[in-house]
Structure prediction request, 227 residues.
Amino acid sequence: MLSKTEYELLQSNLPFFTELTSAQKAALAAGTSTVHYADGALLNQNDRSCIGLILLIQGEFRVFMTSPAGKDITLFRLSEGTVCVLSAACVLDAVTFHISIRSEADSRALIVAPAVLKKLCTDNIYAKAFCYEKATERFSEVMWTMQQILFMKADQRLALFLQAESMRTGSTVLTLTHEKIAEEMNSAREVVTRMLRYLTNDGIVKVNRGTITIQNPEALRQLAEQQ
Prediction:
C-alpha cells in the first residue's frame, strides 16, 4: 500500500491524475508499488519484458540497448522525479523496440503495473495522451543519441558530453573516469583517452586521476557547436 507521500507523488507527477474517476484513482494506487534497487541492479533484460510506468523518486537509472554482439548503447538517463513509459512497451502499440534499464545508484521508484496502465490508457484519453507524449519525448532523446553516434566526430561528442555534465553538476570539476565517459558516449575507452589528450594539449581541460577540470569553457563550447 502506498504511503500518503507516495500517493501525492503520483498526483503531482502524473498530470492526467485529476482527470481520473474515483475508481480509476483507486485502481492506479492499488496497482502501484514501491520498489528499491541496489546500485548496479538490472531492472529488466532486453527480452521483451515489460516493467510498467516508472516514476523515479530517488537515485538514477541508465536506459540502454544491447547489440547482438553484446555492445551497450546508452539511450538516456532517468533522474529523480522523471517518468518513463518506454519501460511499458507492452502497453503502447506504437513502441516496437525494447530497452534495458540499470540502476546506477541506490534507487527507489514507483512502478505502475502494466495491466493497470493498459486499462487506464484504454479507458481514459488523458492517460493515453500522457503516455504517448512521454514516449515521444523519450524517442526524441533516442534520436539525438543516434544523431551524435552517426554524424558527429568523437571530439565534438566528447565536448558536448563534458559541457552537459558541467551544466548538470554546476561545476567545472567533473568526477569522471575514462570508462564512464566511454559508456556515456557509446565509444571505446581508448578513443576517449585519445580525445582527452588532445583537449589537454589545447588547454581546454586538465585531466587528473578520477577528475576532469574544464579550464577553457568557451573553447569547449565552440568545439561542441562546430558544424
